[in-house]
Design goal:
The protein is of the alpha+beta class. It has a single domain, classed as Alpha-Beta Complex (Nucleoside Triphosphate Pyrophosphohydrolase). Helices cover 24% and strands 27% of the residues. It has five helices and eleven strands, in the order E-E-E-E-H-H-E-H-E-E-E-E-H-H-E-E. Strands 1, 2, 3, 4, 7, 8, 9, 10 and 11 form a nine-stranded mixed beta sheet that branches. Strand 10 and strand 11 form a beta hairpin. The longest helix has 19 residues. The relative contact order is 0.23.
Length: 222
């Protein structure tokens, strides 16, 4: 919680990636457990993701966002930030869970966290991304995020075999959606799982924009 009398902090731009695996009897989703030492949502299960990095604005990509997804971003934020958010979600999934949503692409010079992609001879695959929801954490928190929740099929991963030395997430697991809902989750993650289940059944359903505050969240449509 922020200190009494302190001004509310501006939410940081962030993105999360919901990866759905469909090669089992029932669809499964990738979840990870946050480290107990974190000051933000310790010990809770979440989707991989994190805040945007400056390098995400100039990162290479093999395929671009579908026009309708790019337009959905552009209705709310600048086009360059929408693509950077998509790239941030892919980068964070690679760093936290060791899984890479990418395609073969010509090598090119880059820097920072994107050097790992160049070393693999691939670049991010944005074409398969869908927007599920957007959520802004409440003003009473000391850390706030404006997070876009994106979704992609696991078949677009370079491999289902994880990079062994993943970072922040203590545990990684593929779980059925019912199993996911039984885990200790942040409230927003629980709401987004419910939304993802419904979106898999009805891809045309409206996308929620959730603004959390004291009391019930304010929900509109993206």
């Amino acid at each position: 919680m922020r200190k009494p009398g302190a001004r509310a902090v501006k939410p940081r731009n962030a993105a999360t990636l919901i990866i759905v695996r469909r090669d089992r009897k029932t669809p499964q989703v990738l979840m990870g457990k946050r480290n107990s030492g974190h000051d933000f949502m310790p010990n809770l299960w979440v989707f991989p993701g994190g805040r945007i990095d400056r390098s995400d604005f100039r990162a290479p990509f093999a395929t671009d966002l579908k026009p309708e997804i790019a337009a959905r971003f552009e209705a709310h934020i600048p086009a360059t930030r929408g693509r950077a958010l998509a790239l941030a979600a892919i980068r964070e999934t690679w760093e936290e869970a060791g899984l890479l949503l990418a395609k073969d692409a010509p090598a090119r010079r880059t820097s920072g966290p994107w050097r790992d992609f160049v070393a693999q001879g691939v670049a991010p695959d944005l074409e398969g991304l869908e927007i599920v929801a957007r959520a802004v954490t409440p003003p009473m928190l000391a850390k706030r995020f404006d997070t876009w929740f994106l979704m992609a099929d696991a078949e677009r991963l370079v491999s289902l075999e994880r990079k062994p030395d993943c970072g922040e997430l203590e545990e990684i697991a593929w779980v059925d959606f019912d199993e996911a809902l039984a885990l200790p989750l942040p409230s927003v993650t629980r709401m987004v799982i419910d939304e993802a289940i419904q979106r898999l059944e009805n891809p045309a359903r409206p996308r929620p924009f959730m603004r959390f505050r004291a009391g019930p969240p304010r929900i509109s449509e993206l």
